[in-house]
Amino acid sequence: MAVTRAEQRAATRRALLAEGRRRFSADGYHDVVLAEVARAVGVTKGAAYHHFESKAGLFRAVVAEVQRELGERVAESAERYDDPWERLRAGCRTFLAAGSDPAVRRILLVDAPTALGWDEWRAMDEESSARHLGEALEALVEAGVIIEQPVEPLARLLSGAMNEAALWLARVTDPEAQARTEQALDRLLNGLRA
User: Of 84, 123, 182, 192, which sits most exposed with the smallest number of CB within 10 A?
Assistant: First the structure.
């Protein structure tokens, strides 16, 4: 069965994304060379530029992919619960645990804010996962579980705190750090309850 050009292009794009993700995760944004990514998957540098225009373009696509996957993981974890409060807790815990994933830690939390710029990184984060946090908090305010207050600043405060905690958890070797961080998160969240 003959492979169409569209299928070849899609396969090339997927291969470049996978190799880019592997390298960005292992080496960091600044040490990745687009020509080496292309060579590793058996295509020309021109093919890589055709698909992504630049190393930054490849990185942006990798960030979007990792963010989408993380957002899906958080949503799946939250959806296991019927109670909105438990949904919030489960989603937050899943996000914190994701910091141990090298791709999430290096690509999303360390390199993306600097390589893409804070505004673009925040916009991508909003699109993939921060929006879900805001929606969860809004539902809890509407249900009277959380004290009535503006949700947007609350979501940003909680998101920033969890990003920092995920980065810290990714760097510590203490086996109790995750459990202690989850306890601290629960105390923080309980302070929001009506």
Answer: 123
